[in-house]
């Protein structure tokens, strides 16, 4: 009887744990994205391609590689994955991109605009337009 109670206790305690749920949402990201703006930080600064004289493009490939180009020069290439996680600052869940093995950002795609949002309250929000 003690073994059954112990087993039930373990099952019930693991049942309530929330884990990151992997999912394949990367197909929505596949393609090229052109930077529109970045806003945030403690002082809430905004930057645009015009204000920085930089053209930034993100390219998500089908083999889960994220390439970052600045002024048409490849500056970074890293693996990425997408998953769903409970959002820390509002109820529900968030679609997340994980890259560089530890960086994570929430993302959403509305029509042809990609929104990348840092998890912290004083983080940056970056917007990109799909390149057709």
Question: Can I get a quick summary?
Answer:
With 132 residues, the protein is mainly beta. It has a single domain, classed as Lipocalin (Beta Barrel), CATH 2.40.128. The chain has helices at 2-15, 49-52, and strands spanning 21-22, 31-40, 45-47, 56-60, 65-70, 73-86, 93-99, 103-110, 113-117, 124-130.
How are the SSEs placed, and which strands pair?
Layout: H1 2-15, E1 21-22, E2 31-40, E3 45-47, H2 49-52, E4 56-60, E5 65-70, E6 73-86, E7 93-99, E8 103-110, E9 113-117, E10 124-130
Antiparallel strand pairs: 1-6, 2-3, 2-4, 2-10, 4-5, 5-6, 6-7, 7-8, 8-9, 9-10
State which percent range the strand residues make up. over 45%
The level of helicity is 10-25%
Structural class by helix and strand composition: mainly beta
CATH topological fold name: Lipocalin
- The tally of domains stands at 1
Beta strand count: 10
The CATH architecture term is Beta Barrel
What is the CA-based Rg, rounded? Answer: 19 Å
Q: Please, could you describe this protein's structure?
A:
The chain has 132 residues and is mainly β. It has one domain (19-130): Lipocalin. It has helices spanning 2-15, 49-52; strands at residues 21-22, 31-40, 45-47, 56-60, 65-70, 73-86, 93-99, 103-110, 113-117, 124-130. The protein has an 8-stranded antiparallel barrel with strand order 2-4-5-6-7-8-9-10. A hairpin with a 6-residue loop joins β9 (113-117) and β10 (124-130). The N and C termini lie far apart (65 Å). The model is unreliable at 6-10 and 12-23 (pLDDT under 50).
């Amino acid at each position: 009887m003690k073994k059954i109670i112990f087993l039930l206790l373990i099952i019930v305690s693991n049942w309530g744990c929330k884990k990151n749920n992997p999912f394949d949402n990367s197909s929505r990201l596949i393609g090229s994205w052109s930077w529109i703006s970045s806003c945030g930080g403690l002082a809430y600064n905004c930057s645009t391609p015009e204000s920085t004289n930089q053209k930034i493009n993100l390219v998500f490939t089908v083999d889960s590689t994220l390439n970052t180009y600045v002024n048409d020069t490849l500056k970074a290439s890293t693996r990425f994955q997408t998953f769903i996680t409970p959002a820390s600052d509002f109820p529900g869940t968030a679609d997340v991109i994980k890259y560089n093995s530890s960086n994570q950002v929430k993302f959403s795609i509305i029509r042809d605009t990609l929104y990348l949002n840092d998890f912290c309250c004083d983080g940056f929000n970056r917007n990109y337009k799909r390149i057709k």
